[in-house]
C-alpha cells in the first residue's frame, strides 16, 4: 500500500489548484484525475470570465495549463478513478480502479458533479444516439440539423447558443414561463434568430428509430401534447455531486453536496476536505472552484502541521 501526505481526487479547477498549492507547500500531493480530466469546464468552449484572459481562453487550454502548472511545481498527477474508500480513521484508505491502494494522511475531495437526466426510458434508450448532456462534445454531429435543449438556466442558454452556431434550428424546452438564467445570457438567447423557446413545456418522450433520435413529444402546462422534429436532444438541467463514495462518513446536504465547515474546506471528518462543485450547489464557477481548491490545500497543510508526529 502506497502512503501519501495528501491525496487529491478530481482534476477540475478545484483539484488542479489544490495540487498547485499542496505541491508548493511540500506536501507531495498525488492527484487522480478521475473519469473526466479537466472537469465539467471541458464541456464548454470559450471561457470569458476567468481573470487574466482579456480576450477569453479556450476551456481545454485553460485546464491543460492548470495541469501543467501543477506538474511543474511537483504534483504527481495520475490517470485513474477512486472506486472504494474507508474514511473511518486516519490514515484514510482509498482504492483506485487499477487496484492501487493509497493510504492518505489527508484527503481532498474534488470529484465535481455530473449532468442530470430526465429519467425517461426513451431518453436512456437513445443516450449516445441523439441524446447528450454535452453540446460542445457532440454538437458537431448535428451541423445544419434541428435540435432541442432542455433547461432554463445559464448552462441551457450557453448550450443553446453554442448549438445555434452549428445547427439549423434550436428549440429550448423550458418548463416554466421564465428563464432562471442571468440577464446577459437571456439577452443573447432572445437575440439569436434560430433559437425558438417552448415555454411551459415538459418532455413526455424522446422519439426515434434505429437511426437514433427523430423527435420529442412534449406536453404544455395546459395539457396540450405535441411533437417536434429533431435530430439531437440535449440535457442542461443541472448536476449531481459525485459524493456517493464518501457519503457514509462525510456529511452531505439533501442533494448530496458535501457540507464544509464555515469558511473552510473542512468536512465533518478531520483530515478530509472538499473543494469545487462537489460542495458548491450555488456558484459553480471555475474561479470559485479554483478558490475552494486553494482553501482545501491550505487547510490540509495546516492540519498536517498541527498533527505532525
Characterize the structure shown.
- The strands form 5 sheets. Strands 1, 2, 5, 6, 7, 8 and 19 form a 7-stranded mixed sheet that branches. The protein has a 5-stranded parallel sheet with strand order 10-17-11-12-13, covered by helices on one side. It has a 3-stranded antiparallel sheet with strand order 14-15-16.
- The chain folds into 2 domains: 2-114 and 239-306, FAD/NAD(P)-binding domain; 117-235, FAD/NAD(P)-binding domain (3-Layer(bba) Sandwich).
- It is an alpha/beta fold and 309 residues long.
- Helix 1 runs parallel beside helix 2 and helix 5 (154-164) packs parallel to helix 6 (183-190).
- It contains 7 helices and 19 strands.
- A hairpin with a 4-residue loop joins strand 15 and strand 16 (225-229).
- The protein has helices spanning 13-24, 59-72, 121-125, 135-138, 154-164, 183-190, 286-306, and strands at 2-9, 30-32, 46-47, 57-58, 76-78, 82-86, 92-96, 101-109, 113-115, 131-132, 146-150, 169-173, 195-198, 201-209, 212-220, 225-229, 232-235, 239-241, 272-274.
- The two termini are 20 Å apart.
Amino acid at each position: 500500500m502506497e502512503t501519501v501526505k495528501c491525496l487529491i481526487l478530481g482534476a477540475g479547477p478545484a483539484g488542479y489548484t489544490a495540487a498547485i498549492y499542496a505541491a508548493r507547500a511540500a506536501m507531495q500531493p498525488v492527484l487522480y484525475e478521475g473519469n473526466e480530466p479537466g472537469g465539467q469546464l471541458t464541456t464548454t468552449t470559450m471561457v470569458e470570465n476567468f481573470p487574466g484572459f482579456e480576450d477569453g481562453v479556450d476551456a481545454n487550454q485553460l485546464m491543460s495549463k492548470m495541469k501543467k502548472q501543477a506538474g511543474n511545481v511537483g504534483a504527481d498527477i495520475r490517470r485513474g478513478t477512486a472506486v472504494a474508500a474507508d474514511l473511518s480513521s486516519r490514515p484514510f484508505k482509498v482504492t483506485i480502479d487499477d487496484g492501487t491502494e493509497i493510504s492518505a494522511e489527508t484527503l481532498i475531495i474534488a470529484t465535481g458533479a455530473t449532468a442530470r437526466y430526465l429519467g425517461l426510458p426513451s431518453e436512456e434508450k437513445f443516450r449516445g444516439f441523439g441524446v447528450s448532456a454535452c453540446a460542445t462534445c457532440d454538437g458537431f454531429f448535428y451541423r445544419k440539423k434541428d435540435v432541442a435543449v432542455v433547461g432554463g438556466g445559464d448552462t441551457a442558454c450557453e448550450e443553446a447558443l453554442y448549438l445555434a452556431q452549428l445547427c439549423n434550428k434550436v428549440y429550448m424546452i423550458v418548463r416554466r414561463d421564465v428563464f432562471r438564467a442571468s440577464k446577459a445570457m437571456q439577452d443573447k438567447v432572445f437575440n439569436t434568430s434560430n433559437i425558438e423557446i417552448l415555454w411551459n413545456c415538459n418532455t413526455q418522450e424522446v422519439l426515434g428509430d434505429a437511426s437514433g433520435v427523430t423527435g420529442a413529444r412534449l406536453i404544455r402546462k395546459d395539457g396540450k401534447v405535441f411533437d417536434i422534429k429533431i435530430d439531437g436532444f440535449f440535457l442542461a438541467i443541472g448536476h449531481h455531486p459525485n459524493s456517493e463514495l464518501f457519503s457514509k462518513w462525510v456529511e452531505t446536504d439533501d442533494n448530496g453536496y458535501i457540507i464544509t465547515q464555515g469558511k473552510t474546506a473542512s468536512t465533518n471528518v478531520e483530515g478530509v476536505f472538499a473543494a469545487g462543485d462537489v460542495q458548491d450547489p450555488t456558484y459553480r464557477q471555475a474561479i470559485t472552484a479554483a478558490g475552494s481548491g486553494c482553501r482545501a490545500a491550505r487547510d490540509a497543510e495546516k492540519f498536517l502541521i498541527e498533527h505532525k508526529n
